[in-house]
Automatic annotation (TrEMBL):
Biased composition, class Basic residues, residue ranges: 1-12
Keywords: Membrane, Transmembrane, Transmembrane helix
Superkingdom, natural source: Eukaryota
Protein name from the UniProt record: Uncharacterized protein
A Pfam cross-reference name: Mpv17_PMP22
Region Disordered, residue ranges: 1-21
Length: 270
């Protein structure tokens, strides 16, 4: 009779319950969780939190939570060093997807519709354009996980670990307008179903504004990135800054769409 309650207490106090948050994390971001498991990062975090049982004081659990950001950053760096291209692509793909979701929520796309009186009015679309989100996500996966990561690794090999100003100038003045932005139009336009002629026309119309705005935004970001950020986290910093930049690009495009719809509505009324 006494052995049975002890065995039950042992089951309740086991370490399986401590693993529940990490199982939920793996389900929500499975691709990145697989990379972390291959690099041993998930196992290290699991061992860290399983050292303390249910009888540990709450202040020790709080200390573990306070150490979690540093632990995640350390393990992200470890996985990024082991799988640089895959980690960069997945990171930027996820960030760009949510950047476009945020952009559509704050600056919803508009369209020209006809009301009950037969007049043309401007109406904000009440649904998300998931194909547009997928297009931006594909750009992050393909370009940031391939050519961009290769260029950033090459900067250190070709120019050395220092010379941040030269790296930032090459990245902003050469790479961004002549490689990154054309790749953006080609990849996103292809996923959205545009023809090569439509992609070329859009690039010809919007390339200058996109390039100029990107140069102004990216020059200080790249200087800080190349000077102070380690190699394994540079694409992650670029992806975080791109969240802001891609929101601005979406606003720029939506502003032109709104102006075109407003002009068409005014013409139809007259």
């Amino acid at each position: 009779r006494r052995a049975e309650p002890r065995r039950r207490r042992g089951r309740r106090g086991g370490g399986d319950k401590m693993n529940t948050p990490f199982k939920g994390l793996a389900r929500s971001v499975r691709p990145f969780a697989r990379l972390m498991e291959r690099g041993g990062a998930v196992e290290e975090i699991r061992r860290h939190f399983s050292r303390r049982g249910k009888s540990a004081p709450s202040r020790m659990r709080l200390a573990n939570l306070q150490r979690l950001p540093n632990m995640v950053h350390r393990n992200y760096a470890k996985v990024s060093d082991k799988y640089p291209f895959a980690t960069a692509g997945i990171t930027c793909g996820v960030v760009f997807f949510w950047a476009d979701v945020f952009a559509q929520a704050v600056f919803p796309p508009v369209s020209l519709v006809t009301d009950e009186k037969g007049q043309s009015v401007i109406k904000a679309q009440d649904h998300f354009n998931m194909r547009r989100c997928a297009a931006l996500m594909a750009f992050g996966l393909i370009y940031y996980g391939g050519p961009l990561k290769f260029i950033y690794l090459g900067f250190d090999r070709w120019l050395g670990p220092k010379r941040a100003m030269l790296k930032a100038s090459l990245d902003v003045l050469v790479h961004t307008p002549f490689l990154a932005i054309p790749a953006y139009f080609i990849i996103t336009g292809t996923v959205k179903g545009q023809t090569p002629g439509e992609i070329q026309a859009q690039m010809r119309e919007e390339w200058f504004d996109a390039s100029t705005g990107s140069m102004i935004f990216w020059l200080p970001v790249c200087m800080i990135n190349f000077r102070y950020i380690p190699q394994h986290s540079r694409v992650a910093v670029t992806a975080g800054a791109s969240f802001v930049q891609k929101t601005w690009l979406s606003w720029l495009t939506n502003r032109r769409t709104y102006a075109a719809a407003s002009a068409a509505a005014t013409t139809n009324r007259s």
